[in-house]
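Q: For a teaching session next week I want to show students how multiple molecules come together into a single three-dimensional assembly. I've collected the sequence lines for a complex. Could you give me the predicted structure tokens for the whole thing so I can convert them for display?
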Amino acid sequence: MSHARADQRRRACPTVRVRYAETDQMGVVYYANYLVWFELGRTEWLRETGWTYREMEAEGLALPVIEAHCEYRLGARYDDHLEIRTSGRLVSPVRLAFDYEVVRCADGAVLAVGHTVHATIDRSGRPVRLPARVTELLR
Amino acid sequence: MSHARADQRRRACPTVRVRYAETDQMGVVYYANYLVWFELGRTEWLRETGWTYREMEAEGLALPVIEAHCEYRLGARYDDHLEIRTSGRLVSPVRLAFDYEVVRCADGAVLAVGHTVHATIDRSGRPVRLPARVTELLR
Amino acid sequence: MSHARADQRRRACPTVRVRYAETDQMGVVYYANYLVWFELGRTEWLRETGWTYREMEAEGLALPVIEAHCEYRLGARYDDHLEIRTSGRLVSPVRLAFDYEVVRCADGAVLAVGHTVHATIDRSGRPVRLPARVTELLR
Amino acid sequence: MSHARADQRRRACPTVRVRYAETDQMGVVYYANYLVWFELGRTEWLRETGWTYREMEAEGLALPVIEAHCEYRLGARYDDHLEIRTSGRLVSPVRLAFDYEVVRCADGAVLAVGHTVHATIDRSGRPVRLPARVTELLR
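A: Of course. Below is the structure for the complete assembly, covering every listed component.
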């Protein structure tokens, strides 16, 4: 995927305030919590398609994570205000991925980057294609 | 309930090692995590009755928490080895409670005490009585 | 404290969107997570005094939790939009408490109520009085 | 690194019992929690070197995560008994990695595989070499 394409991809940018619960004794956010923020990013990305993940599940479609990756550059700190910049892309007809950047609002510093890959399955666990209204947004 | 009775109550005493994830930037365990340890305590208490919570749920019985309480005396620290001393008692025919003590194994210090109260419900959410084989252990 | 007083108490009402990470296999939010939301409530209550908890800690004052209590009425669900209604009160010169209601924004249902009690300590762990600018807001 | 080498690498294999808190409404463990188990794996790997992470930190050395990766094959379920097979390797003089397999004890199924990469830093955040007694175990 070229940078030009990436720039054109639709983005969701929810913000979070770092919770005390998310810090550890090193004084920064514990590393697993970035994956929770990634979840918030893709939840908002989906909400903005007009089809929430909650509705998706109610209609029998699920997007289980099959791969997660994160690179940590700078530690997020308690009470930091962060933006979770999120974009989606289709990996195969039954698989999609989201790319994330965790950005500190105060100065624009990129604290972490990562991605997740998801299968698209129905209630019985079988792979299914995403509806066209979603895949159109993933091009 | 008299102390004599309390002493006679059946106890489960699972142990946990404090995880880095459970600490916060104050250098001690974040307060909500004690409730997770309480869950481990009652899970082991139930396992020792010969009927695990997993089986209970599979058979359509659930024990949702309706009240939780914890008093914090000394902070648990990363890598501490702790014992979650747990005993159960019947509050009503359709309600039970568990009492907990979080004890530091190294010196026997009681770091926290607390309790949880649970409804006993069936799959449709209606209150049901616990089977006799469990209530007998709660006397 | 009379109800009249309670009504007059200053409140903070931050909102949260329930995260997938916060649910459990019962399909509702795991009970320990309400204590994390309580933390958000008191963080915002403090922020609105003009003195954030982050600044407070930087200046050497901490508010460790010494007691937490929660009553659960209705389960919060994934993607629910919730308001954490929070008010503070002084319990003693070196101890304060916060009261919380977790309210579902869609219909105003109170899902849970609870409180936390905090010691006010300095860097060495000794009890200290809160500054007047904070205690004035706690009357 | 050849498979022959991998097979010869020293391993730690702590076990965990899946907590209710770790499940989500899909009925399996929430994906971020595997990273918490990875932490348990490397903690035990280090403990078996005779130098715990707790001691390491007390002596001014820290191993912040700079990269985490996980592939999810089968969902872990509540109360599952799991083994976190962990081995370490040196990536550079000031960087080490751990490889993990999450194995279900009941049938040996590999539920997930992953790795983390860590910087080795001193109290001031500067890269430092690990002591020989640790690096010897990483060959």
